[in-house]
Automatic annotation (TrEMBL):
Descriptive protein name: Peptidase M20 domain-containing protein 2
Record-stated family: Belongs to the peptidase M20A family.
Domain Peptidase M20 dimerisation: 176-264
Superkingdom field: Bacteria
Organism of origin: Fusobacterium hominis
Record PANTHER family: PEPTIDASE M20, XAA-ARG DIPEPTIDASE
Length: 395
């Protein structure tokens, strides 16, 4: 039997196991770096299928690496995510509104399906559990530790509003600013006070002016996390957090420096002092490779997924997979859910679709497409060389 057909049949035979992964993680939503139940469940399933697991991977308690080795051929890694988002429902509980339950099921599912063919492919299958995509970005320290140096190709998919092999994610810096002034009675001795809230107010105004002069892809958005203790006391301490994003890291470095300069200007204007630091890891933009995109499009079409965006349709959010894509050929694909209402990832309304029959249908097709890409690479003498050459040239 043809290898791809055999792979499709293996996937069909594992449908229940794969849907169980999605459902368990959906029902047990955990915030980033607290995904203890989720990572344990995934490890147990992978061990059942013979994966050698390294727990507490890269020093992160909810990270792991699973591997099945068979040959000197390519090493293909699937990156699982399983962190939820805060604040859903009346009780404002965590929920999988970004569909990371589906990412966990699709990546672990693909690794398990391929493991059943390990004796027929001269290659290695790796599954990496990467915590906290929504917050600190667990892939960033992994990249810094060099764990992708022996991996040839990285694959991951994400539910979205469209099928897209040309996703662009923005580079991002996350900066926390703290202003310090001097407290005084706001009515009886205002002349004695140095107002740290005025500094944030002026910083916000300065960023508003900057916005006219930034490139279209850039985004600056923030919140005040502490604005003072009482209206009758001049605030002597305030804090705000900003996300600063742009399509390319090089431009973002300049933009972030401008925002920092605005904060310094606001401090100068008000007589406060300002300190700042990153409160989450910085992400780089996603790097796409045409040769990998072509193989993915072919495999998506083979499983019946059509209407695929294949060239730049603007940027969206940011992801730590961007950092991975800068050092290792990466195919990140968005898969559309066919749903009856207009809602998007992170919307509360999206929650009811990420573990639905429609999500399962796309889950099985996505696994088959990812495994198809892997088989194309495992069984070709030249494909990996071509991808690597392209990766080097684009770099
Ligand atoms: Zn998200
Ligand atoms: Zn997500």
């Amino acid at each position: 039997m043809n290898l791809k057909k055999e792979m499709y049949e293996i996937e069909d035979s594992l449908k229940q196991e794969i849907e169980n992964i999605s459902h368990y993680i959906f029902m047990n939503p955990e915030l980033g770096n607290e995904e203890f139940k989720s990572s344990k469940y995934l490890i147990n399933v992978l061990e059942k299928y013979g994966f050698i697991i390294e727990k507490n991977y890269c020093g992160m308690p909810t990270a792991f690496r699973g591997e099945i080795n068979k040959g000197s051929g390519p090493t293909i890694a699937f990156l699982a995510e399983y962190d939820a988002l805060p604040g859903y429902g009346a009780a404002k509980k965590p929920g999988h509104a970004c569909g990371h339950n589906w990412i966990a099921a699709s990546t672990c599912g693909a690794a398990i399906v391929l493991s059943k063919l390990i004796n027929k492919i001269n290659g290695n299958i790796v599954i990496i559990g990467t915590p906290a995509e929504e917050t600190t970005g667990g892939k960033v320290p992994m990249v810094e530790k060099g764990i992708f140096n022996d991996i040839d190709i990285v694959l991951q998919m994400h539910l979205e509003g469209q099928n897209n092999v040309a996703c662009s994610t923005l580079a991002i810096d996350c900066i926390k600013f703290q202003f310090r002034g001097k407290a005084s009675h706001a009515s009886s001795h205002p002349e004695e006070g140095i107002n740290a809230l005025d500094a944030i107010n002026l910083m916000y105004a300065g960023i508003g002016c900057l916005r006219q002069h930034i490139t279209k892809d850039a985004r600056i958005h923030g919140i005040i996390t502490y604005g003072g203790a009482a209206p009758n006391t001049v605030p002597d301490f305030t804090e705000c957090k900003f996300h600063i994003r742009a399509g390319k890291r090089k431009y973002l470095d300049e933009l972030t420096q401008k925002v920092i300069n605005i904060a310094k200007g606001a401090a100068l204007m008000t007589g406060t002092s300002v300190s700042y630091e990153k409160f989450e890891n910085s992400f780089d933009e996603l790097k796409n490779l045409p040769s990998l995109q072509d193989i993915m499009v072919k495999n998506l079409k083979e499983v019946g997924i059509d209407n695929i965006i294949t060239s730049g349709e603007g940027a969206s959010g940011s992801s730590d997979i961007g950092n991975v894509s800068q050092i290792c050929p990466t195919m990140y694909t968005e898969i559309a859910l066919d749903i009856p209402e207009k809602c998007f990832v992170h919307d509360e309304a999206f929650l009811k679709y990420v573990d639905s029959d429609e999500a399962y249908d796309k889950l099985h097709k996505s696994i088959k497409a990812m495994c198809g890409v892997a088989l194309d690479i495992f069984t070709s003498d030249s494909l990996l060389d071509k991808i690597k050459k392209e990766f080097k040239n684009i770099k």
